[in-house]
From TrEMBL:
GO terms for molecular function: NADP binding; shikimate 3-dehydrogenase (NADP+) activity. GO terms for cellular component: cytosol. Pfam families: SDH_C, Shikimate_DH, Shikimate_dh_N. Homodimer. The keyword Cytoplasm does not apply. This is Shikimate dehydrogenase (NADP(+)). Its EC number is 1.1.1.25. Residues 240-266 form the SDH C-terminal domain. NADP(+) binds at residues 126-130, 150-155, 216, 240. Keywords: Amino-acid biosynthesis, Aromatic amino acid biosynthesis, NADP, Oxidoreductase. It comes from Zoogloea dura. SUPFAM superfamilies: Aminoacid dehydrogenase-like, N-terminal domain (SSF53223), NAD(P)-binding Rossmann-fold domains (SSF51735). The gene is aroE. Shikimate binds at residues 14-16, 61, 86, 101, 218, 247. Transmembrane segments: none annotated.
Length: 273
């Protein structure tokens, strides 16, 4: 049986085994998918053992996405743009590294939530790994503008400069205070502020009528960012559970050549939160 797994540290909390088992059952694919705990200094060795035991592919999560990038022999263009890898595929011609996080959030926003990005003023909060992986897919979606804002402003301006030639649109980078007086149709929180039960320190008035506030974080109930967004007039709120399911579906497609239907899987996970 073809073996797949998600590798990280910690990993016990991961929903990926459940998601991929549901995908496999739904598409009639025969495979196993497990959670693999790698020691912090033992990522490469854990992968080598998994491959030797017949492993075909891995999802990679915190803190190994950069090590996975270095380990891959070849990269997809979106993995190169992200500078990080969340999906590895093992084949006869070596290890392919991909990054499906950005495609996952774009699909969740535009398809599942039915919210267009094309032609809309888009704000991306954060300049870490999750933000970086989202920039190229966002630019490819054709927003009216893309602003990257971060608590440490220099990281946002550096990211914007790095992606200046990636599409026809040049992103703008700034700190949070410089957002004052601007209005956005799509606001994506890719900071980890919600992990410490905080919201980014944003000026009021950012949300245009009909705007979407999207937090990559997910869990029980609204995150502090979503609470803040509702208070400040965002018309629609969404957490990152859909992104999690969609990035998994992109990985499944890369490995198996079959695209699962994510609707029922997302509804089942949401009900179990
Ligand atoms: P990183 O550690 O790489 O980046 C953290 C970012 O958050 C930095 O830009 C940092 O700013 C900012 N930040 C941290 N605390 C605060 C705060 N209190 N106020 C404002 N900004 C803050 O994290 P990742 O990019 O890997 O992850 C970001 C989030 O995305 C996490 O919540 C993660 O769970 C989520 N995620 C969700 C996925 C999904 O499938 N739903 C997939 C991947 C990530 P500074 O530069 O100033 O330090």
């Amino acid at each position: 049986m073809d073996r797949y797994a998600v590798i990280g540290n910690p990993i016990a909390h991961s929903k990926s085994p459940r998601i991929h088992s549901l995908f496999a059952a739904q598409t009639g694919q025969t495979l196993s998918y497990e959670a693999l705990l790698a020691p912090l200094d033992g990522f490469a060795a854990t992968i080598a053992a998994f491959r030797a035991a017949g492993g075909r592919g891995l999802n990679v999560t915190v803190p190994f996405k950069l090590e996975a990038f270095d380990l891959a022999d070849r990269h997809t263009p979106r993995a190169l743009a992200a500078g990080a890898v969340n999906t590895l595929a093992f084949g006869p011609d070596g290890v392919l590294g991909d990054n499906t996080d950005g495609a996952g959030i774009l699909r969740d926003i535009t398809v599942t939530l039915g919210c267009p990005v094309a032609g809309r003023r888009t704000l991306l909060l954060g300049a870490g790994g999750a933000a970086r992986g989202t920039i190229l897919p966002l630019l490819e979606a054709g927003p009216a503008s893309l602003t990257i804002a971060n608590r440490t402003a220099s990281r946002a301006t550096e990211l914007a400069d790095e992606f200046a030639r990636a599409g026809t649109l040049r992103p703008q980078g700034c700190g949070f205070a410089e957002l004052a007086g601007q209005h956005f149709d799509v606001v994506i929180n890719a900071t980890s502020a919600s992990l410490s039960d905080a919201a980014p320190d944003l000026p009021a008035g950012l949300y245009a009528p009909g705007s979407l506030a999207y937090d990559m974080m997910y869990g029980k109930g609204d995150t502090p960012f979503l609470v803040q967004a509702r208070q400040q007039g965002a018309a629609r709120l969404a957490d990152g559970l859909g992104m999690l399911v969609e990035q998994a579906a992109e990985s499944f497609f890369l490995w198996r050549g079959v695209r699962p239907d994510t609707t029922a899987v997302l509804a089942g996970l949401r009900a179990a939160l």
